[in-house]
Specification:
The complex is a heterodimer of chains A (283) and B (261). Chain A contains 10 helices and 10 strands. With 283 residues, chain A is an alpha/beta fold. By secondary structure, chain B is an all-alpha fold. At the A-B interface, strand 6, helix 4, helix 6 and helix 7 of A face helix 7 and helix 8 of B.
């Protein structure tokens, strides 16, 4: 059974969808393909002909089964991986490498273990040439914003997974990237922590509406957070569908879970993912 | 830890030393030969060595060579190991070289080195340098290889250049591993210091030891072994204290992780 595009089924309740479409594109991905050489000297097609445009200020999730190349797509935008074919652009300029305009947040946190919380958050601004006192004041505000006031002098080893991810988010926000690249950031966390961090991320995002590219394999998470959900197929990764999520903001979890529109998005997108592979066990 | 346990863990190394000396004493008394002095005789010879001006000059000569060999060894090996860990080309160039030199006892190179450089300080320092290098290169290499890719990516996104990432991310995150290599290197420096002096006998602690051996002064021989052993333990303990200070961040402050999301 083919899923029917949702756009026509659900009337736009908020006017945001229209304004989002008019905003300038922050990220443009033009027919990007990625081929990896596997150890057996075989070519593995990870991404095939991906084209995607992400508007300034949009929260876009990339959703798909594991091994569909969704993280690879994010790494290409980050400039950590260069695509075999095609071009990715940020603010109209082709991406040639990593830069402070695109801030990554990884599932593995990737904090600097030899720096305490404050040191980690200050690292980016200091590298950008911000004066020590100013960087420290800014970083302390950010640490408070992510809910870690009082933990400034703790080292990453002394923190729980959820706390580490809060530090990682603050560390990335500290150098003011125009785009946040989040690679399954809550994937390693337990359900309760995950929910709290989703709520906090939305609250933080509502303040300055950065462009966010968010990779996840959780349908609920993608629908709850995003303006747009990009559904990908199993390897080779292709875009199967782009779903606009027309749910009003600010979103509150308790209300949303009871909202039939939210439920319908979740069910329909789950069905799309089921269609993309015959058997869910295949990796 | 309860105070009694703490006291015991403090005393344990001393008790082990005393036990070892006691076994030595009993064994020597039982065997009763000239070539195996009792522990007490050997200990009695220690102060006379340490107060003798000539012996002290010899020991300080040894230590100077050891310090220079260790210092240069570490200064060369850490950057080399780190570069090998981050660049496949550098690794595949140096790895075969290291694999060939690894199983060769460094003291076995002494005759060749003496042939070229004579019995000079440089020859002995060079042997110490070779002894220190391998473990430090190996551990630096392992440490650099294990650096999390995502950590380097995070640094690159902040605007760190490749050279800055090497110094400000690879070096600190490999530091615990590097210091483990340095600790092994320090003990090996002491060992190669003595063996180099065994072969090129001119000055140094190894020279005192083997001169005494030639003259049948066995209590001096054993006293020198005690002195060299004590230096080894002292250096190792001092280095371990230094290492702990530097990498305190890699050891948790609490036994249990905090539960807070």
């Amino acid at each position: 059974m083919k899923a029917v595009p949702l756009r026509q089924e659900i009337p736009a309740e908020a006017g945001r969808a229209a304004s989002g479409a008019q905003a300038a594109a922050m990220i443009e991905i033009e027919s990007v393909s990625q081929i990896f050489q596997t150890s057996g000297r075989q070519n593995h097609l990870a991404l095939s002909g991906i084209s995607l445009s992400i508007a300034d200020g949009a929260f876009v999730s990339i959703l798909g089964p594991s091994g569909c190349g969704k993280s690879t797509l994010l790494y290409i935008v980050g400039g950590f991986v260069s695509p075999t074919e095609g071009v990715a652009k940020v603010k109209g300029r082709a991406i040639t490498g990593p830069g402070p305009d695109r801030g990554p947040v990884f599932q593995e946190f990737a904090l600097f273990p030899w720096k305490n919380v404050l040191g980690n958050v200050m690292y980016g601004p200091r590298q950008q040439g911000v004066k020590h006192a100013e960087a420290e004041a800014q970083s302390r505000r950010l640490i408070e914003m992510v809910g870690l006031k009082g933990f400034e002098n703790f080292y990453p080893k002394e923190l729980s997974g959820g706390m580490k991810q809060r530090v990682a988010l603050a560390r990335t926000l500290a150098y003011h990237p125009a785009v946040l690249l989040m690679d399954e950031p809550f994937g390693a966390l337990d359900a309760h922590t995950r929910t709290r961090l989703q709520n906090d991320l939305l609250n933080i995002w509502e303040r300055d509406r950065k462009t966010v590219l968010f990779v996840t394999h959780s349908v609920e998470e993608a629908v709850f957070l995003s303006d747009k959900v990009v559904v990908m197929t199993r390897a080779p990764g292709r875009i199967k569908e782009i779903v606009d999520i027309d749910l009003p903001r600010p979103r509150r979890r308790a209300e949303l879970l009871l909202d039939p529109h939210y439920q319908k998005y979740v069910v329909d997108i789950e069905r799309m993912i089921d269609d993309t592979g015959e058997d869910g066990l295949q990796l | 830890m309860t105070p009694a346990r703490k006291l015991f863990s403090w005393l344990a190394p001393f008790l082990a030393c005393v036990g070892l000396l006691a076994i030595w004493q009993v064994a020597a008394l039982m065997l009763d030969t000239d070539s195996f002095p009792t522990a007490l005789d050997a200990l009695r010879a220690v102060p006379s060595i340490l107060t003798d001006k000539e012996s002290l000059i010899n020991i300080l000569d040894s230590l100077r060579r050891m310090a220079i060999g260790f210092g240069i060894g570490v200064a060369v090996s850490i950057p080399l190991g780190l570069m090998m860990g981050r660049s496949r080309a550098v690794a595949s160039f140096f790895n075969p070289l290291l694999m060939i030199t690894y199983p060769v006892p460094k003291a076995a190179l002494m005759p060749i080195i003496m042939l070229w450089l004579g019995v000079s300080d440089i020859a002995k320092t060079l042997v110490i340098f070779l002894g220190v290098s391998l473990p430090v290169i190996f551990h630096s290499f392992q440490g650099a290889k294990a650096v999390e890719e995502k950590m380097l990516w995070s640094g690159a996104a902040m605007g760190l250049s490749a050279a800055q990432r090497m110094i400000r991310i690879v070096l600190p995150s490999a530091l615990p591993e590097i210091l483990t290599g340095c600790r092994t290197g320090l003990v090996l420096a002491l060992i190669t210091m003595i063996t180099s002096e065994m072969i090129a006998r001119q000055s140094g602690a190894g020279n005192i030891l083997f001169n005494a051996m030639d003259m049948g002064q066995y209590d001096t021989v054993f006293a020198m072994i005690i002195i060299v052993g004590a230096m080894g333990i002292g250096f190792d303990a001092a280095f371990e204290a230094f290492r702990r200070r530097l990498v305190r961040w890699s050891e948790p402050r609490f036994d249990m992780p905090l539960s807070f999301s």
